[in-house]
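[Automated response] Your request has been received and processed.

Submitted sequence:
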Amino acid sequence: MALVLVVDSDRDSAAWTQTVLQQIGHQAFLVADGGEALDAMAACRFDLVLMELELRGPLDGWSASETIAANPVMAGVPVLALTDDCAPGIEFRLRESPFAGWMFRPFGTAALINCLRDHLRRPRRRPTGRIAVAASAGG
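Generated structure:
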């Protein structure tokens, strides 16, 4: 079972994602904006984050993902972008971002499950900084 943080300002979309996650044996924690996502990640170790890019509020998905990547404690958690934006250049921007992957909406249950399986199987990036040094000192 994985603990997945779902960051989505659309309640219906977040509820659908939570239902799919629960049906396949995962636990979902829902938040509606980037600030809440950072607070949740500071309080709990998630296995994966699903982050809407177009979040409402002062901290959108792009900014939240950059903050996560820069934080030594949070950086090891894969963050997947969820977006409705199919504008030219968006895939290039996503490839250059700290996101581990992305999904374009609308997507179905099978696509979400496959994406989750792919990213939950991958080895985590090791956090950098003092946390990683302290963790490796005992081994």
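Summary generated for your ticket: The first strand starts at residue 3 and ends at 7. The CA atoms of residues 6 and 13 lie 10 Å apart.
If you did not submit this request, please reply to this message.
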